[in-house]
Amino acid sequence: MSTDKELRYSPQYKLMNQYNFVDCGQAFFHLSLGALIVFPVTQQRFQPVARVITVTGNSLWIAMFPIMSVLSISRILVIIDKASPNRLPTTLKVLNAIGMVFSASLWLWGCFTQNLTIVGLGIEYDFSKFGASVVALAEWYLCFPCLVVTYITYLAIVLHMELRKHMEKQGGISSPEIKLFLQSTFLFLYISSIIIIWHNAESWGLWSSLTNTALSFAWVFLPYWNVLLLLTLNRTFRLKMVQFIYRRDKVINFAKTGTPKKLPSHSPLFTSIQE
Length: 275
Description:
The protein has one domain (4-256): Rhodopsin 7-helix transmembrane proteins (Rhopdopsin 7-helix transmembrane proteins), CATH 1.20.1070. 72% of the residues lie in helices and 3% in strands. The protein has ten helices and two strands. A two-stranded antiparallel ribbon has the order 1-2.
């Protein structure tokens, strides 16, 4: 997406690239965490490095939520003609920058205080470190509200599209609205379950090594769910992926195949729903 001329100048796709970056970073973090779990001697011998790795993974997780919110708000503003699809409003730029600074600050503080550690098959805050409890609360009060705002915004997009179709007398709910509703609902329930259980399991008397392991596996699968949903529900994304994968074959067989069929030029607004 970052190399696609049709996409790279769109602010919505730039935000998606930021989201994909933190998603990819989390995937690499899980690989590193797996290696540290398999070889516990390594994490004991290089504990400061192991803690920096856990802090980095957690910071990437936190950074995901402001990006999600800004992206969803930018989409609905474009839909209701309150913003240009080619320019991100200044307010959203500021909010995105605040989210980045907040996440970077948590990462720097975590690296300095070493406030996260590996426990069993997952990670936990080390509340013996200065400020760890404050950071945990800050994470809760940032992530969950951002997730709720994102979900409500996508529901508003679905309702707006349906009302517009009703006014134009086009009939019932179509495939894009259904896909957006299913995608946003699934991700909202999946991510909110991780957040709520992570921060409340101990007070509810549900915390155990099994709970920690289950949450860790749910977190591991999260980056892949996003990609799978995009491939399943987003026709534009599938076509771009096919174009990228088979680009060399198309160049080699150009004389035989003729001019490739031009891909449909969809608005970046519908990256998650267009079919």
